[in-house]
Amino acid sequence: MNFIYAILTGLIPPLIWLFFWLREDTNPEPKWLISSLFFGGAIAVLFSFFGEKLITSMNYPANTQYLYFAAIEEVLKCIVFVIVGLKAKTGDDPIDAMMYCITIALGFAALENILFVMGPFAQGNIASALIAGNLRAIGATLVHTVSTACIGFAYGYLFYSNKFVKFLGLLVGLAAGIAIHSAFNISVIGGDPTNTLKAFGWIWGAVVIMIVLFEEIKLVRPKEI
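Now predict its structure.
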C-alpha cells in the first residue's frame, strides 16, 4: 500500500502541471506522443542515476558535483527531446518544441519524486513523505520544467531557421537550462533556509517568465522572403 502512496504522491503533481501547460497549446499533440515523451523523461532518470553515482565517486567539491548533476540530467532530457520529439512528424509549430521539453521534464520529475518519497513511505513515516512530496511539487518539479523549457524555447524560437542555426539554438538552450538547474541545486542543498526560500521564489518568478515566453513563441512566424 505504501508503494501505491509513493507513486501517487510523486506522480500526481507532475500530471497536474502537465495538464496546466498543455492548455497553452491551441493545437494539441497526439496522446501517444505526449505519453512517449513523458515516459522517455522517466527513463532518463535511470541513466542519470548511474551518471550521478559515477560523479559522486570522483569526490569533486560539492558545487562542482551539483553542476555535473544538473548537466547530466539536462543533457539526458535533451537527448530524449532529439530522439522522440524531433522525430515526431506532428511537431509542426514552434510551440511544440516547448511542449515536448516540458512533458519530458515532468516525466523525469515524476519518477524522481517517486523514488525520493519511497524511502519515507517504506519506513512508515507518512508525514515526512507527504512534506517531501509537496516540497518537490513546488521546487524540484518546477526547476526541471523551467530548465528544460529553455531548450524547447531556444529551438522553437529558431524553428524556421536552417538546421545549423537550430542546432546552435539547442546548445544555447541547453546551457541556459544547466545554469538554472545547477544554481537552484546549489542554493537549496546548501541548507540555509533563507537561500532556500529565495531559490523557490526565484523559480516561481522563472515560471512567470516562462508563461511570457509561451506568448512570445506563439508569435514566431516563417521569415518572409
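The first helix runs from residue 2 to 22.
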